[in-house]
Design a protein that fits this description.
single chain; Rossmann fold; disordered N terminus
Length: 836
């Protein structure tokens, strides 16, 4: 701190709408050079655009993690706090929203800037009045100025969404809640704009422009609007007073409430704030209301700190300095943030340590660990991503490979999909933009920065379009103005049988998770009634979702019909789709379940996956075992050919095409197939268990999931012989077509065994016809079967047909054929050639 004693520091403290940021911009522009650090990329971009109009684009720079616009002659810099180049010699330096030093996640960054960022001629710290004791302790020479609010902020009580005044902002604290409120406003009031911190500046500006232009009267936002984003807002309504802060769900502090509520009323126009709930955890207490109206908040007692100038002689020195304890009693060691967590995990890997020697490489390693987790993947997945990035940065020419970067950009360059899908792509694109904006990480950083900026703009435009399509319905706006009705005031009831009633009038039914409007509902009333119904449908759907996630085995089943659909209590909840293999299908949840929150949807998916796995183990265990054999590198080539062909045929395969592979099986191979349940019959290989009705149903479901085709009707339970042509897929159901009939393969095997037991060498014999008669084989069918088994007709004796063994038939294509276009065809040919 002694090094800054001659540099004047001014702290400008006060609530929102006091003109603090405007003052800092004026002061900066009055100097020959300057810089301001902001808490949000959105705010940095907004002020950058303002300063460009004053100073010209050639002299103004924008520096954020994902975007760098730095003209050669830049003299004024607008940055996020994390991206401030504090080593620059500039006349003015400003730090906005400095009270964020008390934030557990990012506070150490703002504290470091408060302690170390200084302008040559002037330094200005902007923040709330709660920061005063910290300024006095940490920057004792600072001049502290208090700024009064330009307008009055008053509490307007609790109001339902349908009764909110125009020019209202509704604040929620998760993307799901934002979307739910915006959807309600679309139904009730024709639509709303949406603002979240995760939106790109381009999308956010487009959404705000709709609100500012009056195309919509409402805006739904996260607490991102609390950080200086200026809009024409008359009223701020809180949908909730609880948020997830990265570690737990907690109630907002009074200072946080005031920061957000203060967006209402700008300059000389008064504003109001309130909640959507009159009582409960979503309602303000009288003490909170009084504190917000009078701008009286608890003073900060500590700020979070982490060494902003760690030693980089070695990884161990770096970690030690980053975990150093602060010396000042008002500073607390910052909780371990994700960059340090990634650093410590990667430091445990010998390969990383071997490549990270010397200060230059340690600095490069620490920079890579600072790659933000824009996609919110969590520490482990993000660590793997950083490890791959650093692997390239620490090897060869030290650059990210062009091919990898280009492929990832191309994968994200897709504007198809819904709001969540496109928002996810933008989050992923931010990681690549961050990489591209590190000049020494790419061979051609300017090119890739332009590419990522163009990608983000393209995705941002698409996201704006999707948000508008999803949450703005101008026809409803017109309808509401005509009717002036208040749908949310109507009483809504969801009956036990799923009937949904409004004011005791049936408006539809909740069929599973899908709401179906009553056929006789008037078109002019539908939107209003649906909006009212939504108040209760969310809770009922959540209850049903929880019940589904805990469903008993017997409550789930495969639906009758021609599609592999999973039903629960008669309602469709999922469908089998192609997965990693035949016996490992993917489960696609029914779209009706999109109404559930992501965590509950994931519980449902896990339950369905567990149920399907249990059903497959029970009914088609052979397929699971055969797939394991096919993946076993230690298994012999003939065994893998047989297993793969059986998997391709869903547990059934003709013997003749597999003759060479079967001949090549060793005793251990045959034992392994028997253990899996496979019978190597005279004409077919099969698992008798797969012919049972339940197993046959699951076989067909797996085949349908793999191919996308419909399931044909199953034979009647117990069927032994079918008339040829009755089933178009007799072979697929385990029936061998012989003459004019199709015979179940296990019965063919029984007849074959009986014939061999009856013969004596190559002497003519008469097989017992009782079995053939009992299962319904016609004499002509029996004759054809005997010929296929390797017998030839002999001279009849006393009118009874006799047969002579002539040997195993030549290997020709038979009625049940092994597929020849699969990945194992070449292996089968090699095996055949080897055996020959």
């Amino acid at each position: 701190m002694t090094g800054h004693a001659t540099r004047p520091v001014t702290a400008v403290l006060g609530p929102t709408n006091t003109g603090k940021t405007h003052l800092a911009i004026e002061r900066m522009c009055g100097h020959s050079s300057g810089m301001i650090g902001f808490p949000l990329r959105l705010l940095a971009r907004e002020v950058y655009d303002r300063v460009v109009k004053i100073k010209g684009a050639g002299q103004v720079a924008l520096i954020t993690g994902e975007e760098k616009i730095v003209p050669r002659d830049a003299r004024w810099f607008l940055c996020t706090a994390e991206s401030m180049p504090i080593d620059k010699d500039l006349a003015f330096v400003g730090i906005d929203e400095a009270q964020l030093g008390a934030d557990a996640e990012r506070g150490h960054v703002f504290t470091d800037r408060l302690l170390r960022a200084r302008g040559r001629e002037e330094t200005m710290v902007l923040g709330s009045e709660a920061l005063r004791p910290m300024i006095k302790t940490l920057v004792p020479d600072a001049d502290i100025l208090s700024r009064p609010r330009f307008s009055t902020l008053s509490y307007a009580g609790a109001r339902k969404i349908s009764r909110l005044p125009k020019r209202s902002v509704i604040v929620a604290f998760s993307a799901e809640e934002v979307y739910a409120v915006a959807e309600m406003l679309r139904r009730l009031r024709g639509g709303a704009a949406v603002v979240m911190g995760a939106l790109s500046p381009r999308t956010r500006n487009a959404q705000v422009a709709m609100f500012q232009a009056g195309e919509v009267d409402y805006l739904v936002a996260t607490d991102a609007i609390g950080m200086g984003l200026n809009m024409d807002v008359a009223h701020v309504a809180f949908a909730s007073l609880r948020k997830f802060d990265g570690h737990r769900q907690r109630r907002l502090t009074v200072a946080e409430m005031a920061q957000i509520a203060g967006r209402a009323g700008r300059h000389q126009r008064d504003g109001t704030f309130g909640a959507l709930s009159e009582e409960g955890p979503g309602a303000f207490t009288p003490e909170e209301v009084l504190a917000i109206e009078e701008h009286r908040f608890p003073r900060l007692e500590h700020l979070y700190w982490r060494n902003g100038q760690p030693a980089t002689a070695s990884i161990d020195d770096l970690v030690a300095d980053l975990e150093q304890k602060p010396l000042s009693p008002v500073l607390r060691a910052a909780p371990e943030s994700i960059d340090l967590a990634v650093l410590k995990r990667l430091a445990e890997e010998d390969g990383v340590r071997a490549r990270t020697r010397g200060s230059t490489m340690v600095n490069r390693f620490w920079a890579a660990c600072g790659l933000p987790d824009f996609r919110k993947l969590g520490v482990d997945p993000h660590t793997r991503f950083v490890a791959r990035v650093y692997g390239h940065l620490s090897e060869g020419n030290g650059h990210i490979p062009h091919d990898w970067f280009a492929a990832e950009i191309a994968r994200l360059d897709n504007v198809a999909g819904d709001v969540e899908t496109i928002a996810g792509r933008i989050a992923a694109a931010r990681s690549w933009a961050y990489i591209a904006n590190h000049a020494d990480w790419m061979a051609d950083p300017a090119h890739w920065a332009d590419r990522t900026r163009a990608l983000e703009e393209r995705l941002s435009d698409a996201l704006h379009d999707r948000l508008t399509q999803r949450f703005v319905d101008r026809r409803t706006t017109v309808l509401m103005r005509q009717l002036g009705a208040d749908a949310s005031a109507l009483a809504v009831t969801v009956a036990d049988d799923g009937s949904v009633l409004v004011e005791d009038q049936l408006i539809g039914r909740l069929e599973g998770f899908r709401f179906v409007v009553a056929a006789d509902a008037r078109a002019s009333d539908k939107r209003l009634l649906l909006a009212a119904a939504e108040k209760r449908l969310g809770g009922e759907r959540a209850r049903r979702g929880a019940a589904l996630a805990d469903a008993a085995e017997a409550a789930l089943s495969l639906a009758p019909g021609d599609q592999p659909i999973i039903v629960w209590s008669g309602w469709t909840v999922g469908v089998l789709k192609p997965g990693a293999s035949l016996a490992r299908p993917r489960i696609e949840l029914d779209r009706a379940l999109d109404c559930l929150d992501p965590a509950l949807r994931e519980r449902v998916r896990t339950r369905l996956e567990g149920w399907v796995a249990a059903q497959l183990a029970r009914h088609v265990a052979a397929l699971v075992a055969l797939e394991a054999i096919g993946r076993d590198a230690a298994a012999s080539a003939p065994l893998r050919v047989v297993a793969a062909t059986l998997v391709q045929g869903a547990g059934l395969a003709a013997r003749l095409p597999l003759g060479d592979a079967i001949d090549g099986l060793q005793a251990g191979d045959r034992q392994r197939l028997r253990k899996a349940g496979i019978v190597i019959g005279a004409l077919d290989l099969f698992d008798p268990r797969l012919l049972k009705p339940g197993a046959a149903r699951w076989r067909q479901a797996l085949i349908a999931a793999r191919s996308g085709a419909s399931m044909p009707p199953l034979p009647l339970p117990g069927a032994t012989v079918l008339a040829r042509g009755v089933l178009g897929n007799a072979a697929g159901f385990g029936f061998r077509e012989i003459g004019g009939q199709a015979v179940r393969v296990d019965l063919v095997e029984r007849i074959a065994r009986a014939a061999h037991e009856a013969r004596a060498g190559k002497a003519p014999f008469a097989p017992d016809s009782a079995m053939a008669t009992s299962i319904g084989l016609a004499p002509a069918t029996m004759d054809r079967l005997m010929a296929q088994l390797g017998f030839r007709a002999a001279e009849p004796e006393a009118g009874v047909s006799r047969w002579v063994w002539r040997g195993r038939p030549a290997r020709v294509k038979s009625a049940i054929t092994a597929p020849r276009d699969n990945a194992f065809a070449a292996l089968r040919q090699l095996t055949s050639g080897h055996q020959g």
